[in-house]
Specification:
Distance between the termini: 33 Å
Radius of gyration: 16 Å
Number of helices: 0
Structural class: mainly beta
Strand order of the largest sheet: 1-2-3-4
Helix content: under 10%
Largest sheet: 4 strands, antiparallel
Order of helices and strands: EEEEEEEEEEEEEE
Strand content: over 45%
């Protein structure tokens, strides 16, 4: 049916992990994680989600003890929230959490990277569903997924801003790239 790969990661043990969104399980989009060896042969595959929400996997990163996946939940009102999934080396879900704002704002994640302190740096956009504008959204979590800080940047004075990808810099700070402007520019 509908299978769309969004990201892949070459992990420490010379295998590949692919995060996909699929509707093959319950006709609603779920997160599908596929692990292969270096020859492309399937090692394992797991699907995460339920039949009440649309979930998609945005990106995946390898950690020393497993994998972290950034995804998005979308409810029946089209409101999106961030969804973090932590998997062990065998693909078993060890913890997950949903991060949302309120009923009129939608969070859309675009990238996740691990940080030197074992935490996570997430980029994305915070959409105002009433005024149809967005702000760049930056989030730092600790190693257990607890929020350490959030930065919301309105760079275009009320138009559309997005943070599309981010990393931790050598000096310990954070860098993000994205876009700014109105819906047509």
């Amino acid at each position: 049916n509908f299978d769309e790969p969004n990201s892949f990661e070459n992990s420490i043990d010379v295998v590949y992990l692919i995060v996909v969104q699929t509707d093959a399980v319950d006709s609603i989009v779920d997160v599908w994680v596929v692990k292969t060896n270096d020859a492309g042969e399937l090692s394992w595959q797991k699907t995460f989600g339920n039949s009440n929400l649309t979930e998609n996997g945005v990106c995946i990163k390898t950690e020393s003890n497993g994998y972290i996946i950034l995804g998005n939940f979308q409810d029946m009102n089209w409101t999106e929230s961030l969804w973090l999934l932590h998997l062990d080396a065998q693909g078993t879900l060890t913890w997950d959490q949903q991060i949302s704002k309120n009923e009129t704002d939608t969070l859309h994640g675009t990238s996740i990277t691990t940080t030197t302190d074992g935490g996570y740096f997430i980029t994305g956009s915070l959409y105002d569903m009433i005024n149809y504008v967005s702000d760049a959204y930056l989030l730092k979590l600790n190693h257990q997924g607890a929020t350490q800080w959030v930065k919301i940047l309105d760079l275009s004075n009320g138009l559309c801003d997005e943070a599309n990808c981010g990393i931790q810099a050598r000096d310990g700070g954070y860098v993000s790239v994205g876009s700014t402007g109105d819906l047509n520019n």
